[in-house]
Amino acid sequence: MEKNGKNRFCFLTLGFTTQQAEIIVSALVKITEANLDIVYKDMVNKMQQEITLQQIMSQIANVKKDMIILEKSGFSALRAENEKIKLELLQLKQQVMDEMMKVRTDTKLNFNLEKSRVKELFSLNERKLLEMRTEVVALNAQQDQALTQTDRKLDTEVAGLKTMLESHKLDNIKYLAGSVFTCLTVALGFYRLWT
């Protein structure tokens, strides 16, 4: 149980949620237990060996499905977060645009009502407009920076997941091949003893 906690902690440090880490650890424990059951069997006939092989293949297929589901859910979360940031930035941009339109409308009304204060109001509103433009430029720069960071994070996560997936695939194949060859060696040993 302590070992499972360490494995779960390893997956948590790789960016998985607690639930995802528990699913991966549970799947790996099931595969390990199934492979140990195969190794510890005294003797199997050909029919039992085929059944066992089918069970192993089924378990590998289940692990692959679980890993695909985990991979998709991780990507979905990152995409959803990215979309949320985009929507918030669009709302801020719309608010700034609405504010700019309000300032322009107020300027036109004041221009028509009070001609004597036109120059003063015009310079004041021009200053406000420049401040708003500066804010829009700053918001656009922040948006670009946030999108770039999100893209980098997505690329890093994708690369990490692909590397981990390939590593797990190779480890499973090595372990499966070792288990099969061990079973075959034991079976051939028994066969030689009997013949």
TrEMBL record:
Protein's GO biological process: calcium import into the mitochondrion; positive regulation of mitochondrial calcium ion concentration
GO cellular component: mitochondrial inner membrane
Keyword Coiled coil: yes
First-listed, main subcellular location of the protein, grouped into a coarse class: mitochondrion
Location of the protein in the cell: Mitochondrion membrane
Transmembrane portions of the chain: 175-194
Pfam families, alphabetized: CCDC90-like
Keywords, comma-separated and alphabetical: Coiled coil, Membrane, Mitochondrion, Transmembrane, Transmembrane helix
Family: Belongs to the CCDC90 family.
Protein name (Swiss-Prot/TrEMBL): Mitochondrial calcium uniporter regulator 1 isoform X1
Organism listed in the record: Trichechus manatus latirostris (Florida manatee)
Gene that this sequence comes from: MCUR1
